[in-house]
Amino acid sequence: MVIAQKIHYPVRVGVVDKNQLVVRGLRSLFDEDGRFDLVASAHDGARLLDGLSMLSLDIVITGWLMPYCNGRELLEALATRTDSPKVVVYTGHVDEMVPREAMELGAYAFFSKTEPPERLLNVLDSVARGSMVFPFMSKRLEVSVLKQLTQKEALMLEKLCLGMTNQELAAALKVSPNTVKFHLRNIYSKLNVRNRAEAVALYFNEGNMAS
Predict the structure, then answer these.
(1) How many Å apart are CA 158 and CA 179, to the nearest integer?
(2) Long-range contact list for 172-177, CB < 8 A, 24+ apart?
(3) Helices (H), the chain
(4) Is the peptide bond before 116 cis (omega within 30 degrees of 0)?
(5) Residue-level pLDDT at 136
(6) Domain residue limits at 87
(7) Cβ burial, residue 155 (10 Å; 0-12/13-18/19+)
């Protein structure tokens, strides 16, 4: 069961895209919907990063191929900050590895510009509630490293993939927050990953959450 995060509407959104037509289209879409407020836009990630501390954003929608600071570099920069906004990669780039790379770098969602833009609204709402939204990625590891996990660790990883915080994990599993941290350290060590984003990416790569 997913424990949804409390949302304060409108959700504050920033858009990073080299094409101003995309920004205008999203602004119009948000104005009609009412759940989202586009409070900032930039041509590239560098400009967004310059003003991020003053913006108090909930979500950043970013393209992938941009000058100066592209989607990959923006995600890497945000990973070094505390209280960074959730990132949704919104691109027309067709490389099938981009969703996987975005996930591994800590993005919350990937949405293709080939899809009807109205569907992006549901993706943003899910992300605001703490969920991750990615297309099914069928490539699987030849040897499942997940088999190294104990039953409790595997259960915790499954719930981690639902977007649960440490506090929510503790409540769901009826353990203390310190116990959660202990198990997470063991999970990261066994899977040879550095953080929850990489653990979730590995779990998705295994195909265990295909739908």
Answers:
(1) 16
(2) 172/1, 172/3
(3) 20-33, 45-51, 71-78, 98-104, 118-128, 151-160, 166-173, 177-191, 196-205
(4) no
(5) 65
(6) 11-128
(7) middle
Q: In angstroms, rounded to a whole number, what is the distance separating the alpha carbons of residues 108 and 161? A: 11
**What pLDDT sits at residue 78?**
93
Lookup result for tokens 């037509």: 21
Q: Count CB neighbours of 170 within 10 A.
A: 17
Give pLDDT tens digits for 135-155: 865 444 334 567 778 888 888
Total tally of structural domains belonging to the chain: 2
Domain membership of residue 169 (yes or no) is: yes
The model's pLDDT over 47-73, given as tens digits with 9 standing for 90+, comes to 999 999 898 999 999 999 988 899 999
138, part of any domain: no
**pLDDT(13) > 50:** yes
Q: 104 and 25 in one domain?
A: yes
Whether residues 152 and 71 share a domain: the answer is no
Amino acid at 26: L
Q: Do the bridges between strand 86-91 and strand 109-112 make them parallel or antiparallel, or are there none, so unpaired?
A: parallel
Based on the fold, state whether residues 76 and 169 are members of the same structural domain.
Answer: no
